[in-house]
Design a protein that fits this description.
Elements lengths: L1 H11 L13 E2 L2 E2 L1 H22 L1 H10 L3 H10 L2 H10 L3 H12 L4 H14 L12 H4 L2 H10 L3 H7 L6 H17 L16 E2 L7 E5 L10 H15 L3 E5 L16 E4 L2 E4 L11 H19 L3 E5 L2 H14 L3 E5 L3 H7 L7 H16 L2 E4 L2 H9 L7 E3 L6 H5 L5 H6 L7 E6 L8 H11 L4 E6 L5 H13 L5 E6 L6 H6 L3 E4 L14 H7 L4 E4 L2 H7 L4 E4 L4 H12 L2 H18 L2 H14 L2 E2 L2
Parallel strand pairs: 4-5, 4-8, 5-7, 8-9, 9-10, 10-11, 12-13, 12-15, 13-14, 15-16, 16-17
Antiparallel strand pairs: 1-2, 3-18, 6-7
Helix pairs in contact: 1-13, 2-3, 2-11, 3-5, 4-5, 5-6, 5-7, 6-7, 7-9, 9-10, 11-13, 12-27, 13-14, 14-16, 15-16, 20-21, 20-25
Length: 611
């Protein structure tokens, strides 16, 4: 039934079909990957055109990111100039990319410097190196100045830098920036009725039975907490009898380099619909948004959706709101994070166009939605403070699959592979290694404990990996007896085994605009496996841990963290009690089956909208 529905939806979206269970098109019994590559060429060309219009180095950056890891490392080793900056960043060596940029800028002429800065702008490497750029940034003019202004969130400045330029590249960039401005300011939402002053609404009287989820990206191509949440939620809804489907933006995942992707695929029973139809106008942001709204409406109509459920960011919400109002279907917007605060945490300016416009448009989407879902009470308070009716704002926190509580997850093989003895006590984390995660605080705390039976285990990769590896080496040379193991990236399918190898799970996050509002998923998984959790005193973490499931440390301070960890290292009985309490909490309140029921209640409260 699902495959037939997928074929009919693909037909409605103008996409080729049919396809097998893996999503590949078939001729007879033979998947035709070549046919998919050919069918996706128009979309790939349109996406490439968009990147070239935005910043030619953006196209190079995207191309480098989709290379195999070995090819990325080799390109990073052999390349020079702007390409060397891009290659290092694409291979995950962001600190190396910043050092190369600073080195290359020394002695560079104006033209070469402009290319270097434009390449850095495409990869997001400008933050934190202002001193290294000397006077080059101020001296940059024309298209290069526009690239730098846009990277800094100054869309108006980027448009101003192109004034008077008449060459084709400048004209294309000017059109692209106009489309970007339209999307960021939510121009497409102008005139949409709000939930209180819109057309006649009939109270919902029947149980909602079909829903379309509108998301930025998805499994299996993107492995992240965002995509894992989508998979868990939709799988639980389908198990509960809700006909739930997932819709991604037009062009995904071809736009991310997966050129052989099929327009429909299922993963563990969850149907993912991708609009890869030839001729979609993906070259300009505003055209892409309109195509997105058409895609969402077509899928919602094809599956008979009772609700359109958009998830962060605001582009998804805009597409869902446009589609929902056209169809007369209520829209739920789930704020999983706040894009503008994430950008600000990474060095963005709160006074920039990007920050101000994004925050205002996110708020408009929250206000226009028939119901809002957030991940924590602190996020809910932020949404309500923006003027959204508190009766329409609900909290459904991060959850885990019910099977994780039933399965026996053995961390023994991981410990053995990492040469961790059965008698060792492992404190650690599983995380994307961003600076705000505070993993350096965990390393320093482990060094202070100076215990031969203690292992600090850090599982994951990210921008801070290189710096953390150096810090661990420094601590070893200092003479501490604590061992440090940094695994790098591990397959998503094995993360739970690594969780199980840890005796005390740590979340030493620093206070930033993001971390004070948005909770992570990984500590919930650790609690499901019966591990006590030690966190810094941030509202969403304090809300998660509670007084009986772990310890809360005041601030990201190595001394305070070492003291808390030392108490648990010395007391295995207490570790067991806290872990058992956390597991009970997850079983009662933090499984996807519990969440599916909560979403069902939200859906039944929203009102139908007459088109």
């Amino acid at each position: 039934m699902t495959s037939r529905l997928g074929a009919s939806v693909a037909s409605a979206l103008g996409a080729p079909g049919p396809r097998d269970a893996t999503g590949s098109r078939t001729v007879g019994d033979v998947p035709t990957t070549t046919a998919l590559l050919v069918a996706n060429l128009p979309v790939a060309a349109c996406v490439a055109s968009s990147h070239l219009a935005r910043n030619p180095w953006q196209a190079v950056w995207v191309g480098a990111r989709v290379l195999p890891a070995g090819a990325q490392r080799e390109l990073s080793r052999r390349s020079r100039g702007p390409l060397s900056v891009i290659a290092a960043a694409a291979s995950g060596q962001r600190e190396l990319a910043r050092r190369r940029l600073a080195d290359e800028l020394r002695g560079a002429g104006p033209r070469r410097a402009q290319h270097l800065l434009a390449a850095a702008a495409a990869t997001g490497q400008l933050a934190g190196i202002d001193g290294a750029t000397g006077g080059f940034t101020q001296a940059t003019t024309g298209s290069s100045a526009a690239y730098l202004a846009h990277a800094a969130g100054d869309v108006t400045g980027a448009q101003r830098a192109l004034d008077g330029l008449r060459n084709p590249a400048a004209r294309a960039h000017r059109r692209w920036l106009a489309g970007e401005r339209s999307v960021l300011t939510g121009a497409a939402l102008d005139g949409l009725p709000t939930t209180t002053d819109g057309p006649h609404r009939a109270p919902a009287t029947a149980t909602r039975t079909s829903v379309v989820h509108v998301v930025t990206n998805s499994l299996p191509e993107v492995q992240a907490g965002y995509t894992v949440r989508t998979q868990g939620l939709v799988a639980a809804q389908r198990a509960a009898g809700i006909d739930a489907h997932v819709c991604t933006p037009p062009g995904f995942p071809v736009a991310q380099g997966h050129l052989g992707a099929a327009p429909f695929t299922t993963l563990a029973g969850v149907p993912y619909h991708r609009d890869l139809a030839a001729g979609r106008r993906l070259d300009l942001p505003d055209r892409h948004l309109e195509a997105y709204a058409v895609t969402v409406a077509a899928l919602a109509r094809a599956v008979g959706a009772d609700v359109v459920h958009a998830h962060s960011k605001h582009v998804n919400a805009q597409a869902a709101l446009l589609a929902g109002r056209r169809l007369g279907v209520p829209v739920v917007y789930e704020a999983r994070g706040f894009l503008e605060d994430t950008w600000r945490t990474r060095g963005g300016d709160a006074d920039s166009d990007f920050y101000r416009w994004t925050r205002r448009t996110e708020t408009r989407c929250l206000s226009l939605a028939d119901a809002v879902v957030t991940l924590s009470q602190s996020m809910r308070e932020d949404v309500v403070a923006r003027g959204v009716d508190p009766t329409r704002v609900h909290v459904v926190g991060n959850c885990v699959p019910d099977a994780l509580l039933a399965d026996v997850v053995d961390g023994g093989p991981v410990r053995e592979a990492l040469d961790i003895r059965p008698t060792d006590v492992v404190i650690g984390t599983v995380s994307t290694l961003n600076a705000y995660e505070g993993i350096d605080v965990l390393l320093d705390a482990g060094g202070l404990l100076d215990d031969a039976r203690l292992v600090v285990l850090v599982v994951g990769d990210g921008p801070a990996h290189e710096r953390l590896t150096r810090r661990a080496a420094e601590l070893r040379r200092s003479g501490t007896r604590t061992r440090f193991v940094l695994t790098g990236r591990v397959p998503h399918s094995r993360t739970h085994e690594h969780h199980a190898a840890i005796d005390v799970f740590c979340v030493p996050r620093r206070a930033t605009p993001v971390t004070t509002l948005v909770p992570p998923l990984k500590p919930v998984e650790a609690m499901a496996l019966g591990r006590p959790v030690v966190v810094t005193d941030l509202p969403p973490l304090r809300e998660l841990v509670g007084p009986d499931r772990g310890l809360v440390v005041e601030g990201a301070d190595p001394q305070l963290l070492a003291q808390a960890l030392g108490e648990l290292v010395a007391d295995p009985d207490r570790r067991h009690r806290l872990g058992a309490s956390g597991r009970d909490h997850v079983a009662k309140e933090r499984t996807w089956s519990v969440a599916a029921a909560a979403y069902g209640q939200v859906y039944e409260q929203v009102e139908a909208v007459a088109p």
